[in-house]
Amino acid sequence: MLEKIRNFLRNVTVGEGGDGTLDADDPRLCAAAILVHIIAVDGVVDEAEKTRLHQVLQANYELDDKATATLIEEAKKRAMEAVDLYGFTSILKRQLDVDDRRKIVEMMWEMVFADGEVHEFEDNTVWRVTELLGIPTSDRLALRRRVAQRVHYALDGDALGEEPETPDS
Question: How far apart are alpha carbons 169 and 99 in whole angstroms?
Fold first, then answer.
């Protein structure tokens, strides 16, 4: 009985009609958890980031306001429970084709630029997740430029070609 209740709570309906259930392997949930992590990694989540998160998820997954809020709440829980991002990226890599994985990278850049500044932890997280998703560096940088231009964010020309520092380097 308790397991049935847990399964029911795991399968929160997202969106209207169709197969809109949300479970641990749902790519929307995995992507949303990564985006939640991105906006929180610098230690500050402001209203601009929350608003942009809602907009990006709603637009990319064609959700209504209620379904988007449900997705974000579940993503926050999953992000808090996660030890690392590999669990999310492995599901995304397994279930999505390369173009859909590039779209995830593009959504990450949307979150990075949402507050008007790029924090080194955000940039490093995008770099790590992109590598885990199997997306080439050239694509990551091209998507960064595309989103920066779209949101009118001025990038340092010198920083575009550099990889962020990692603990191993």
Answer: 30
Residue 143 confidence (pLDDT): 97
**pTM of the full predicted structure?**
0.79
Burial class (CB in 10 A: 0-12, 13-18, 19+), 81: exposed
Q: How far apart are CA 12 and CA 63, in angstroms?
A: 14
Q: How far apart are CA 135 and CA 87, in angstroms?
A: 17
Q: Which stretches in the chain have pLDDT values below 70?
A: 1-21, 156-169
CA atoms of 51 and 49, how far apart (whole Å): 5
Q: Token digits for 10?
A: 């795991």
Q: How far is CA 82 from the centre of its chain?
A: 14
Closest CA to 49 of 40, 60, 58: 40
The tens digit of pLDDT for each residue in 6-29 reads 444 444 444 333 444 478 899 999
The Cα-based distances of 57 to 60, 158, 166, 167 in angstroms read 5, 31, 29, 31
